[in-house]
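Handout, page 2. Input:
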Amino acid sequence: MMMYEKLIYTNDRGESIEFGIDSVYHCNVSKDVEGIAGVTNVLYKTNSMGQHGDTYVGQRIEARDIEILGHINTQDKTQALQLRRQMLKILNPELNGTLTYEYGGFKRVINCRIFGEPKIGKKSVLYEFDLQLECFNPFWREAEEAKEDIANWVAAWHFPCVIDRDKGMIFGYRAENVIVDCYNEGDVSTGMRIRFTALGTVSNPILLNVDTGEFIQVNAVMQAGDIIEINTKYGSKGAKLIRGGIETNYFRYIDVDSTFMQLGIGDNNFRYDAAGGVNSLEVAIFYNKEFLGV
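Output:
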């Protein structure tokens, strides 16, 4: 069976449209799509009188522009017009969207928005389209978020279940990985979600990067069942408390010396602690590995 590259655009309402060789929205991804592989790097530099050459100051990667060319693969005018209306409905510029690249079992996702006017017009026999997408975050990511547990409870109950009358049975145990390595296999540093979960009373939970000395600490007392989530991603930085299913903004409880840490490329060693009730604290880190292209 032949495998082809395909792109799937999905808007905020969950409506999707697929572009590929075997789709009614026909598109040869390897030939008719621009901007999915490389990124544009901008270098910043300075110079002064008498200096030969320039001095490197820094760099940034610009937003990604993607162009998709193709045609509606039907000669039936009624069906073609219906498919055109469906395309315009899904590619609503007022909605955020994601673009998913698939080739066999390989999959990458990127956030995007429709840019400019989707051009859909009849050329000779078929309706052709020219779509422009802009990705403010230029990096592709894995479809599933990675998770690292630093301290949690592990189930030990299994079947068949035999309970020794004298020794009893362990139904679960606490896996206390005091230091855990979050290995970032991506091409760039990335933000993360830090989740503190309280099984009892916990005060001032903290997560420390052993390698850099950076930390993030919440100056508050957690009750049993509380969850505090801290997001360190650019554009989404913040903190919230989830108590009894109700979310509360908790940004003001972040210690002033805290750093909204990023996961560097490669190894990132973290350790957790608390001013009190550390044995009642569960800690997990969620993150996306981000890549320069597909």
